[in-house]
């Protein structure tokens, strides 16, 4: 089978950049980035994150996109084409999206449920203390919303690269940015006086978010902030999960990869920063610093309470917010499924329709099991990092905390010590283009990035707890 002739492609640079950025901008940007920034000294976290974007993130993103375009393969087979010893990396890189797809689409169903609640005028009820817990622990309703979200993902992937992924990304991403900018500006104008007479404003919350707080910062604390920023960046830019390898394989040879990678990182970083501008001032205004919390509780518990406290405007803001989050969840879920579809098409010579439907069926079954993990199949399992997990948390731990660092470490060792950094640099510089940070890239991919990744991997086992 001639992959070069038959493989689908993005139509050009714009389609490639928007689709890749759409993949990177997901739920982690919206609920995890603001929480970490608020917890880790505001501007201190932002500075660490920006430095890592320009070095650590750039190295991994450049590597995976170049691997994809040079091999014209999905993640399962791309690493083997680099060197036969890369087969294990390819298997792990394919297993990551296989684990992520079912539970990510379940969370996408949660987002749809809240969007429906605000559209129907039930936003005040959604702000209730037991609303979220009551919803996810019910038997059939989470499955219903998950199935709708899953069907939308399968439909777009079934349409293909150009008519599905690229077409919808070109529409959803501009609308997403218009919405997040609008809500961010509104968030800065908020003001609230609580029952004790204390007045808090959105601008004060913005300063909490952006001004570095160095009080009590020790080397150990700084290292924790650095690891938080690296962990956030790690899955924020969709590396080590096969996505960027698959998307890179769809990029045409005349696309300037170096410039495109810069644009992808710019869009992703801007979206993460604006998510903080949108969320932190609003939560601070109505709930104070204690309102910030990690994970789904920020988006499904804290923010609905904030929207309810806004009065009549809160219903509109809630609708806009959950439409925006739906877009982010949908584009990321599309890319997760596409990484698996590309792998199976390349490895087993399947047609897109067959791969899409069979993987969709697997995700449907897996997602139902995840939904039942909050009721009839509920259990609690202590993890090495000190957390307690049920089905969704366990899948997230294995994929994000264990497998992804291993994929990235293997990738760096393969590039830096087996095939050589020039293997990547030659692809990025193909034709008339230049790779402006190639000296930094050589050092990062061979020495610095593997060490940082190994430290991050050790965190999975509670080494630094």
UniProtKB/TrEMBL annotation:
The lineage of its organism: Bacteria, Bacillati, Bacillota, Negativicutes, Acidaminococcales. This is Neurotransmitter:Na+ symporter, NSS family. It is a multi-pass membrane protein. It holds the Pfam family SNF. Keywords: Membrane, Transmembrane, Transmembrane helix, Transport. CDD domains: SLC6sbd_Tyt1-Like (cd10336). The keyword Cytoplasm does not apply. It is found in: Membrane. GO terms for cellular component: membrane. It comes from the Bacteria.
